[in-house]
Amino acid sequence: MKIGKLSTVFLLLLFTTTGFAQSKLVRGLVVEGNGDPLTGVNVVQKNTSNGVITDFDGRYVIQNVSEGDTLIFSFIGFETIERIVDSSNQMDIVLSEILSQLGEVQVVAFSKQKKESVIGSITTIRPAELKQPASNLTGALAGRMAGIVSYQRSGEPGQDNSEFFIRGVTSFGYANSPLILLDGFEISSEDLARIEPDNIASFSIMKDATATALYGARGANGVILVNTKEGKEGKAKITARVETSIASPTKLNSFLNGMDYMDQYNKALRTRVPEAQLYYSKEKIEHTRNNLNPFIYPNVDWYDELFKNQTYNSRANLNVTGGGGIAQYYVSASFNNETGLLKVDNQNNFNNNIDIKRYNLRANVNINLTKTTKLSTKLYSLFTQYKGPSENASDVFRSVMNANPVTFPKYFPRSPNVLIGTSSTEFVNHTMFGNKSRGGGQFYPNPYADMVKGYRDEFSSTILSQFQLEQDLGGLTEGLSARGMASIRNYSSYGSSRSFDPFYYDGLSYQPPSAESPEERIGIIQLNEGTDYLNDPSTWTNANSRVYFELATIYDREFGKHSVGGLFVYTREERLNTIQGASNVYTSLPARNMGLAGRTTYGYDKKYFLELNFGYNGSERFAKEHRFGFFPSAGIGYTISEENFWSGLKPTINLLKFRATYGLVGNDAISAESDRFFYMSDVNINDGGRGYAWGQDFSTWYNGYSISRYANESVTWEIAKKLNLGLEMVLFEKLTLQGDYFRENRSNIYMPYEYIPATSGLSSQIKSNIGEAMSHGFDGSADYNHSFFNGLYLIGRANFTYATNEIIANGEPQYPYDYMSRMGYPINQMWGLVADRLFIDAADIQNSPVQTYGNNYLPGDIKYVDINDDGRIDENDQVPIGFPTVPEIIYGFGLTAGHKGFDASFFFQGSARSSFMIAPDKIAPFVNERNALDIIADNHWSEFNPDPYAFWPRLSTTPIANNEQRSTWWLRDGSFLRLKSFEVGYSLPQSVLQKINAQNLRFYVSGNNLLYFSKFKLWDPEMGDNGLGYPTQRIFNIGMNVTF
Amino acid sequence: MKIPGNVLVVLLLTLFATGCEYLDIVPEKTQELSLVFERKEQAYKALATCYSYLPKSDDLYGTHATLTDELTSPIRQSVNGLEVMRGKQSVGDPLLSLWQGFNGGSWQPSLYNAINDCNIFLENIVNVPDMTEREKREWGAEVRFLKAYYHFLLVMRYGPIPIMDKNFPISASPEEVRVYRNSVDECFDYIESEIDLAIPDLPARVINTNFLGRVDRTIAAAMKSRVLLYAASPLFNGNAAFYAGYTDKNGKALFNTSYDNEKWAKALEAADYALQLAQSNGVKMYFFNGEYRDYDNANVIYDSLFTEAIYNYKFMFVDRWNSELIWGLSRVTNDWYQIQASTLIKNTAASSNEAAWQWLSPTYRMAELYYTKNGLPIDQDLTFDYDNKYALRRGASADLSVFVVQIGQETVQLHFDREPRFYATIAFDRGYNRAHGIKQHLRMRNGEEPGGKMGSSNDYLVSGYGLKKYIHPDTQGDAYANLINYPWPLMRMSELYLNYAEAYNEYIGPGLEVYAALNEVRKRAGLPNVEDAWSDPSLARTVGKHLSQDGLREIIQQERLIELAFEGHRYDDIRRWKQAEVYFATPVKGWSVTESQADRFYTLINVGERSFITPRDYFQPIRTEELSRNPNLIQNLGW
């Protein structure tokens, strides 16, 4: 991995001449923790000058050693290992990386810097840790890196991107998402999700002002830098990885069966209206129980009928790297296939399950044009084929909640015994889906019909090309270089959806077999006119492009103890979007930004460091005089462990470094693309919605106008003032600790003046840079590497992020009570009523304050606390409840151990201090004949079980507004701890590998989301309020990794 | 490669300096509001915008006509107006809010939004270069009227409101935009004065068939009559009982608390002026003059007057731009939400009933409201067997009932011997309905068609009655496109006569002028003159009721409730008369529609809860959020 050319030459000179005859030869392979061979490792016989270095493939052969001698394996940036030679001739070694070691190089904005001199807050993760048995990189971020707050709400293939924020949410403006750069070029979070971890050389996040200020008005939300692997000189090395996995939901919702459903429905009806007729007759319940006829007395388990328990996915990656002195290449191809949990149905010949195939190609080539000129190109393309149901798969999951087991069957069979009036349905040429008229030509959702009525396919491609020329200007003055870069990315997708309109039928009658007709007969009626063919498809195309251009000069030189660095860079970028049907001129205009940025670094004696940065840039969205902003930052670092007086402590505390930075960064993504040009009003002078007709036949029609934004010349970007205080420490050369305290003031948040009353008659809100928020927190990590003499090695990692925030200023109205003010509370704080308990009886209601959400609440409905004591429960009684919806704490910890070819690792990830709300209106059973979750039947208030703290209030078949208010009753703790991953691997020994001519061959079994621990039991807590959507996936995976 | 170092930096700076235009990407001539006032053709858009806020009276979910005890619906069909009547109104997110707008403004934006656009129009219309001064004055007067009308609608829902005569600049401070309410008197005075300002500039009558529906002087005068009538009514005139001590945050009394009889004088004057203006512009009571439908030929031969009266009243509502219509809503709702579709009784012969919901049904109270064939209330007509009104009677060929009750079929006595407007409006079991181009023989008991509750379907008439008023007889209920649309009457001639009669009786007392006005309405309804009906001892139980002011007031009120039934007047009328406890606080009733046998079907049951808290519900709540935005606003009493 690391090629230290100089040291190689040096060591060769030093050791090749030595040697006096001894009895034995030892050979072996040196690899790093993830199995990658290490080139250039020193292998020295202890207390002698006998030594060799490993070759390009990590192999070594050392002669003239004997049993009992000690071999020392050392490599810069890695832990040194001593091993005693035993009787065998084979000694394979795994070296563990030591983070924060001197001499390492760190990726920083627009360039690289020696790690020792970096004073910004940057976290880097080993790309191997991002490997997981899933096809979405964003799912691997949570808990892996100090400073990232992340969660995943859905498990739907293709729609399962995690939300992620750097150091939490610091703005309540439009965008909180970090700037993501792939090889220096901005990409979207969707692009990030699709990057193959195998191709990543480095993955870093930039968190503080000095690390991000160069990105000026784009860096305030933090920056993620991803660089891809480049070619290495040497003969072609081929690495391949193949995986296949089984995915299944981490938790399934369970629903009432038909009999219980009807029973509870009747109860729900009578508990509100005692004299009501039973909705489901005793007869129907009895016939359902006896399973008299599954079509007239259906009892459908929709979940089971629609979804499989598991599905299979596979991934493969192949890459080749190599090259000579002139050119080096890294070429990779990968494929993955993800499928959904929908059952494939025999009623249609089309497959409507989700099936995504992705093809990913990359070619990175570096060419040394001259000794001082280097040309590099990076070509990347991603092609995605999507097939799936015409309805969104998450909606199919949700619709199961909206269909109950007894109203209608999936479909009626086409048979001579199924009659419409007196005619047989034997020759009906379409599926006769079950349904019932809802009134007004509306039907109930038949989830089965929704799922099978059509399918959608889509093809999308992303093509990214980068071209970079680097010129070493050492001839001019030593340490000076320049480079120019141009990048273009194009994304396009097109797709179409085809479906038929389902024919719905309702069951009317059932006639058991009798003397005159030996067959049973089912009577049905047709409810609507569907189509028995696929309708004309709906089609769409979307495309966008991004063009980026960068020129930079870099200066880096050491004068004795002084090291000086400089960077000056010019960038410009354009992004153009085409969304089919975009109706607004402003949406169609490109987004542009340009900037100058610079950095000066100074270091003295590897102890004292100073860094000054600036970004000066502008974007198209603001008025001329507010277009450009200047974002300076500064930082100092002090490595106390390099001081002479530290020498006594050095063996214990190998490194101790303090860092402090402060500066300004901006955020210009303060509103949607269509709402960009703040200095202009946004008027639609052809708005049909505001039109009117006159005339005899109402045919003199004129469209009207509508104003969706009032002009405001003074709008500009958000400003973040970031302070970071950091500490790095290495103990015993095994334990690396890193911690940062941060504090950020975010001002100029673009938001509406909330105090303008409706009487002003404005058709849109007036917005300006009036918001302000403060956030602070801590992030830290601990890494522990240890190898034992017997070949056992242990790697432990843990990280922790705590980020909290509060609103300092917003344009809020003047609330009648001080406690209603949002100021001082977190940005994602939920507000709601405080639920006391359920009402006990009528007297309890009588003696309690009036609740103003409909006048039909009864005993067993939720009783709220009258916060302001005015005898009424209304909006004025809402207070902050629970934690914010975005977790304040994210953490992760894991351990990897290996011994003689075997390795095992696990990783836990946790989230704490967050809350979410169960949406009672989405799961209220029986309303509109909606399905009922088991738990509601098991645990609700009733006259027989008047538990004032039951999970569900008094049942109802109609919505009870009183119970659907946002309140602590529905608030749940979003904390959880999950076994995010677990992996066991076995690498074949060298002796076997040689026979098949391979360098490395590893088999492994891994799992994702295997277990979780949470107080919340209904669904996977990470899904939050999306609990009835496509469930989070648990994955079991087997894979093979081979290198030739 | 030899490049001097400083050249590089200079190069970068030059690139940067020349690149600043790189960020100027907005092309010339993007859409701006000023463009609307650059040409007359564009200015129509501004005018249309001002009109577009007119509440969608013919839209099931947007209409205020459902804000009443006249109609009810199955509980599953949550029609906004009915939800309010059921007590589901809330301060957090008020239903049918004209102040705040509702459904996120998509169904109905805030009327203050409308007023803001009217103000923009009035400020800018003078700038349109290719319009004549006269046109600008006319258009300006139209918009000034609309602005007054929007204020009036707000007053009817909220009582004293802040008058927004001018727009605030965008840069206005929070203190400026936090307005106080004006008192009801100030509001009515303002509305009146704005209409008065508009009247001289408006054309007397819009006759250009391309622009029917635009405001003219006749409309403005008629609306002024309504405004002043309401202003003089007990709710707004000396209502100390409710609002003594109800003051604004700055101490100002928002309601007057002493009765002022002169307000009736102004109302009378306005009604008189409006009537004369309407008559001089050719507005007159509508009489059907087309061809009778074939299925009614037999009736015509038997009793043409009765059939004619039914036709007169029926077509008065659905015949486009007829002679009686003073102001019609010319933007009709075409789709699913069209209120006609929600009352249409399904056609058994149609292959699909996509535009016939049979959801809204008249309450039993409405079946009782209509007069007998002699033009008297059912409990006042000595020839009407009031005590046995629930007794079953069979339709026979021997009497008038042959047109209204199917021969040989049983229904209650109540449905016999009623006035033509009853038969033109209310569809009942074993009666007839003219729709889908046919005469439907109604069968409205459980499991029967057309009109009955079928199985577990949620499309049914909960009270056992259907509403004919909204239905054009030739409308086909099998597709939306086949609904025959008509401009919803915002103002028609009958109302002016009734306004006149009411104001006259209140200010002066009973008199020939009052009877004459009432008789205009009764004549078209096919009823005898009011003084004749009430003077005949063989007919009237309370002979001479029309001779006292109080007696005549009741007669006028009932006439108004019948004549204008289901047109969105009742909610306002009942409230301004302060009678809401009587009508809005008691459950609505209907027949037992889940029964199939006649005797069991004809058992009255409660078919809908109603809630009305006095005085709270006389006005709608202001959304809590608005009160936070404007701490100077005071919530309506009781909310």
Question: Topology of this structure?
Answer:
The complex is a heterodimer of chains A (1044) and B (639).
Chain A: H1 5-15, E1 24-32, E2 42-45, E3 51-53, E4 59-65, E5 70-74, E6 81-84, E7 93-95, E8 105-108, E9 111-114, E10 122-125, E11 148-151, E12 163-166, E13 179-182, E14 185-187, H2 189-193, E15 200-206, H3 209-212, E16 223-228, E17 234-249, H4 258-272, H5 282-289, H6 302-306, E18 311-323, E19 327-339, E20 355-368, E21 373-389, H7 393-402, E22 411-412, E23 418-420, E24 423-424, E25 432-434, E26 437-439, E27 442-443, H8 447-452, E28 454-472, E29 480-499, E30 503-511, E31 521-526, E32 538-559, E33 562-579, H9 585-588, E34 591-604, E35 608-619, E36 628-639, E37 653-667, E38 682-694, E39 700-709, E40 718-731, E41 735-752, E42 767-787, E43 793-809, E44 830-832, E45 835-838, H10 842-846, E46 850-851, E47 862-864, E48 872-873, E49 879-881, E50 889-899, E51 902-912, E52 915-917, H11 920-923, H12 934-938, H13 961-964, E53 971-973, E54 976-987, H14 990-996, E55 1000-1013, E56 1033-1043
Parallel strand pairs in A: 1-7, 13-16, 23-31, 25-30, 46-48
Antiparallel strand pairs in A: 1-4, 2-3, 2-5, 5-6, 8-9, 10-15, 11-12, 13-14, 15-16, 17-18, 17-56, 18-19, 19-20, 20-21, 21-28, 22-25, 23-24, 26-27, 28-29, 29-32, 30-31, 32-33, 33-34, 34-35, 35-36, 36-37, 37-40, 38-39, 40-41, 41-42, 42-43, 43-50, 44-49, 45-47, 50-51, 51-54, 52-53, 54-55, 55-56
Helix pairs in contact in A: 4-5
Chain B: H1 5-18, H2 40-52, E1 71-72, H3 80-88, E2 101-102, E3 108-109, H4 111-124, H5 133-158, H6 174-177, H7 184-198, H8 217-232, H9 240-243, H10 262-280, H11 297-318, E4 325-329, H12 339-343, E5 361-362, H13 364-369, E6 392-394, E7 410-412, H14 420-425, E8 426-427, E9 432-435, E10 438-441, E11 466-467, E12 488-492, H15 493-507, H16 512-524, H17 530-535, H18 549-563, H19 570-576, H20 580-584, E13 588-590, H21 598-601, E14 605-608, H22 624-629
Antiparallel strand pairs in B: 1-5, 2-3, 4-12, 6-7, 8-11, 9-10, 13-14
